[in-house]
UniProtKB/TrEMBL annotation, chains A, B:
GO biological process: methylation
Keyword Magnesium on entry: yes
GO molecular function, one term: metal ion binding
Keywords: Magnesium, Metal-binding, Methyltransferase, Transferase
Name listed for the protein in its UniProt record: Anthranilate O-methyltransferase 3-like protein
Pfam families tied to this protein: Methyltransf_7
Superkingdom per UniProt: Eukaryota
């Protein structure tokens, strides 16, 4: 992701040399990842300006998520951006301003032609192929209107690298969650009927399916398109393929990721009272699985550039 | 305040006919007042556009307050804006977007020349004459850099209309608070020593003192300057000077206002444990006082226009 981000942000800067640059992170959640992106973008701009000997632009960041996102927590953690930036060597000071923007990215979020760069990481998600087609097209159209000419986007989301939609890693992840639920049914903590009527819908598109939509729509040039395997544990930087140093900690990390995705659906179906217990059991199941192999997820990452209308 | 807001926003629109208009409310807190301003500005723009037969601009609102403000609550209440706007007759639909902007307005909040209109109501406050001079000048300079050419501000804050700084309504308000604290000392809920060493600093400037600073700085033209008496109870719309219909409810309303101003200082000195009890006693004291007379506060309201640099 880092090189894609670097190329996109760098190119926008070199093409436009803006005095003011607007960047939006869509579906930012309230976790630390948002702030990583923010500080990466600042560093990229800082390096660019050093290289070409230009004054840095003033950066305006918008952190977007649904209205019920914990923006208070997000704002409190903004101090960490300062810390991150101070660590970087050889950077120049880039003036930046950060706003929170509540609302769905399936609606308009910005005035026309007002955003230079959109970023979205693991926040685009679909429950069926039909919904994927409709909503992804709609998303691309909305952002097209909001981007300045020469504006770009870098998107990443869960995908699949096998043709069979039921095969692959997602089914392992689902299986471990089903096991956790099943143990709660056996202990009488979850009603059997509720368990039987539960369905966790998630559609993960292939790179081909994504490409077809972008090309059919004709609003963007695809600059890069990558498919890679991402560790479900975002803190496991170990490149050794199948050794997990601390399987208990890593299981807990994985459970957090999955919880952030599925908690709303689970709470909606079973009630929120079971959620803590469920994901604690899930973390244990994942930890056991990690003794055998790491959980890797196929991720699609693409950078898109707004087409010039001639 | 309404006519001042109307004139300022209307003039900016007519002068610039912007396709996109940026409005910031500084020190918005998380209460309903912020949303009143937001919907008023939208209505004003809507009326202007109807009058001149123009398409409305896209409005981008920034709601600013300190990082510890409850932005979650503020964002949740955004639905009320829709309700407010639907009630208005003869309006056209104005596209608008709302962001939260955490940070002190004694620092930079926006890129240069990016804001059309600043609004700030009861959020500018000073603890001494010296601080007033320094901070108010600094505030005006920061906003000058952030305003577009022909940009305007409407500010209102507590003032005084008597020369003697210790006279007038503020001393009544302080007195009733001191009474409440005193009763807690007598019941052993507050240490006498803490009470004796407590000092509630608040400097309220006269209109002359404000005018001197603005003119000395030379960055703005003063379009309007009003001094008026504002009821401490924001929900008391009754114009009959000295009849309070429900003195208990009105006392509670007044206590809320004063609490929003002084809670941080009180919690800092006495600990947050006493705050609920203290303001409940204070509400009772105010309710008793309201049987004699309403509590009216002198308020200064001014609209400023960025000077054109020639």
């Amino acid at each position: 992701m880092r090189p894609m981000l670097e190329e996109a942000v760098g190119e926008i800067y070199r093409n436009l040399l803006p005095e003011k640059m607007v960047v939006a992170d869509l579906g930012c959640s309230s976790g630390p990842n948002t702030l990583v992106v923010l500080s990466e973008v600042i560093k990229i701009i800082s390096n660019q300006c050093l290289r070409v000997g230009q004054q840095p632009p003033e950066m305006q960041f918008f952190l977007n998520d649904l209205r019920n996102n914990d923006f208070n927590n997000l704002f409190r953690s903004l101090d960490h951006v300062e810390q991150r930036l101070r660590v970087g060597k050889g950077t120049i000071s880039v003036p930046y301003f950060v706003a929170g923007l509540p609302g769905s990215f399936y609606g308009g979020l910005f005035p026309r032609h007002s955003v230079h760069f959109f970023h979205s990481s693991y926040s685009l998600m679909w429950i069926s192929q039909e919904q994927f087609h409709r909503d992804f097209s709609h998303f691309l159209k909305l952002r097209f209107d909001e981007l300045v000419p020469c504006g770009q986007m870098v998107l990443s989301f869960l995908g699949r690298n096998k043709k069979d939609k039921l095969d692959g890693e997602m089914s392992t992840i689902y299986g471990l969650l089903a096991e956790a639920l099943d143990s709660m049914v056996r202990e009488g903590l979850v009603e059997e009927e509720k368990f039987d009527t539960f369905n966790l819908p998630l559609f993960v598109p292939s790179s081909k399916e994504v490409e077809v939509i972008v090309k059919l729509q004709g609003l963007y040039d695809i600059i890069h398109f990558q498919t890679f395997e991402s560790n479900l544990d975002p803190f496991d930087d170990d490149l050794d393929d199948n050794v997990v140093l601390d399987n208990v900690q890593s299981g807990a990390n994985c459970a957090k990721v999955i919880r952030s995705v599925f908690e709303p659906m689970i709470a909606n179906h079973f009630g929120s009272a079971i959620v803590d217990d469920l994901f604690s059991r899930y973390a244990t199941n994942v930890a056991k699985h990690l003794l055998k192999e790491k959980l890797m997820l196929p991720v699609l990452a693409l950078s898109l550039k707004k087409k010039e209308v001639t």
